[in-house]
Structures are given as C-alpha cells and as structure tokens.
C-alpha cells in the first residue's frame, strides 16, 4: 500500500488506487509475464497445483515480503511481523503448515519472485488490480483502504472530501507520486497548485506550520502520523470518487496462477477468520480499524 519506507505507500495511477504497490507492481509486470507463462506451462495438467501438499510435508512456507510497515517487515529485534505475516502464521497453521519463513525483496520484485518460485506466496498487503490479476491469482482481500485528510485541530474549513477542498479553495498537499494527486485533479483542483511533499510526516509539518490547509493520504497512515500532534488531526476515512463512483482498494495475498488449490484453501480459512472476528484482532495491533475490514472479493477487484 509505497514511496520510501514508512510512507503512505501509494502512487498515482488513473482508475486504480494504489501506491508504490501499484506502480512498482506494474513496472515489474513485463518481467513477470514471462515467469508467469513459464509457471503455467510447468504446472499444466496439475489439478489445482501440488504446492499445498509440499508445504504440509516440509512444514514451512516461504513468504515474499517487501519491508513495509505495517504490511510485512522485519522488526528491530529481527522478528518477522506485519499484518500479512501475522495473518499468514494463523492461516497456514490451520492448513497444517507450522512455520513461515520470510524472503525479503523489493516491492517491484514480488510478482517476478513469486512466479520464479523464489518464495511460495506474496504476503505484503498487495493491492488487487486488473494488471496484477493477469500475472497472479489473489485470495480475497484481508483489508480495504480509504483516504483521509490531515487538517488543523477542529477541521476549521470543514474538509471531508476532495470536492470540499475544491469548493472551499483550500490549500492542498499530498505526497510524491501519491494517487491522491489524481483524485484532487479529478475533483477539479488545479494540479499546478498542489504542494507535493515527500511523505505524510512532511505533510503533517506543512499543515501544522500553516503552509497548507490539508494533506491527503491513506486513512491508516494519516491516523498514525497525527497521534502525537497537538495542532493537527485526521478526518474520518472516506472513499474518493472516480468518475462519480466511490473507489475502494483491497490488499490481499498473491499466489502463482497454477496454485488454485492453495489459494482456495487459504480463502476458506480467511473467511472463517472474518466471520469470527479473529481477522480484526490480528490486524488491529498494526493500526487497522474496523473501517479497514472488508467483504470485497478478488473477483470484483480484478474486474475493475
């Protein structure tokens, strides 16, 4: 869900929401297409793939991660953590695989690495979109992501949407390459008037210093960055409008296209965790709230 480590994590891409997750995943697509094609040929004739059986036999699954907080990373004590790895630990244990092993890589290398069998599954909170669905298969999303604004305490201008920003002639900022650039432009904001800053910390500083009225980012990161601020707050999460329709993205685990059996088994356990509320308990320590819980499906996101 990124620009440099710890940033908001999404990059402008028309029609899709995404972050560095989308941009780098798309850049990697050319290399991944060849690898994906090879994987399909190699596994032709298999009934949904044999990876699940192999993982159970060896007792460990290799997770592709991209070192992004809060999605999947190695903490200061050298331990694997993040919303996706912690979810993977629970799901794979239920599937009869007791251990997970991290395989760190750059975000743009996740899909090529998966399809060249450097690891078994992508556990990096990857956004599901049509481009990626041509290269991998996704479980249903384990979270969704909305936008939010950083504003001065009390939100004096009453800014709750990009349309509000335009109507009230607010001074607007967002991050380098963020999807929010296009959301503001689509709402009628002049792109040359947008203040572009490196990340959400710089955006908070700009709001606190009065250089802008609002900074736009994802609900998760804006919520976290204002926690210690005495001058600024985050607005309630909202979905930007794309061609008049609410746009919400979802992040999910990715699998090689031939491994439908593993993906389906993963989905079955994921849905049980959703119904029981255990999924939220796993994700909550990483800053996720009930607003990020979702019933979106990979099928509907792949079709966009």
From TrEMBL:
GO terms for molecular function: ectoine binding. CDD domains: PBP2_Ehub_like. It holds the Pfam family SBP_bac_3. Residues 60-290 form the Solute-binding protein family 3/N-terminal domain. One of its GO terms (biological process) is ectoine transmembrane transport. Signal peptide: none annotated. NCBIfam families: ectoine_ehuB. PANTHER family: ARGININE-BINDING EXTRACELLULAR PROTEIN ARTP (PTHR35936:SF17), MEMBRANE-BOUND LYTIC MUREIN TRANSGLYCOSYLASE F (PTHR35936). This is Ectoine/hydroxyectoine ABC transporter substrate-binding protein EhuB.
């Amino acid at each position: 869900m990124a620009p440099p480590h710890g940033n908001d994590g999404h990059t402008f891409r028309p029609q899709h929401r995404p972050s560095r997750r989308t941009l780098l995943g798309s850049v990697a697509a050319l290399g991944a297409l060849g690898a994906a094609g090879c994987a399909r040929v190699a596994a032709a004739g298999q009934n949904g793939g044999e990876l699940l059986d192999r993982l159970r036999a060896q007792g460990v699954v290799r997770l592709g991660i991209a070192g992004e907080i809060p999605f999947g990373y190695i903490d200061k004590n050298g331990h694997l953590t993040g919303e996706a790895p912690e979810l993977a630990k629970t799901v794979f244990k239920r599937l009869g695989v007791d251990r997970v092993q991290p395989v760190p890589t750059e975000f743009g290398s996740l899909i090529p690495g998966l399809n060249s069998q450097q690891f078994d599954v992508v556990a990096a909170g990857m956004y599901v979109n049509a481009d990626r669905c041509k290269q991998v298969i996704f479980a249903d999303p384990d979270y969704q992501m909305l936008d939010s604004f950083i504003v001065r305490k009390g939100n004096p201008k009453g800014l709750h949407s990009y349309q509000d920003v335009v109507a009230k002639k607010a001074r607007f900022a967002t991050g380098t390459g963020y999807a929010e650039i296009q959301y503001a432009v689509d709402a009628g904001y002049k792109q040359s008037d947008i203040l572009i800053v490196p990340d959400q910390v710089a955006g908070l500083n700009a709001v606190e210093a009065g250089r802008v009225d609002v900074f736009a980012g994802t609900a998760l990161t804006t919520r976290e960055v204002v926690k210690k601020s005495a001058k600024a707050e985050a607005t309630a999460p909202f979905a930007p409008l794309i061609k008049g329709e609410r746009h919400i993205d979802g992040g999910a685990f990715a699998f090689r296209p031939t491994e439908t059996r593993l993906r389906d088994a993963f989905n079955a356990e994921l849905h049980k965790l959703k119904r029981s509320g255990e999924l939220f308990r796993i994700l909550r320590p990483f800053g996720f709230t009930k607003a990020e819980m979702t019933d979106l499906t990979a099928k509907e996101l792949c079709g966009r």
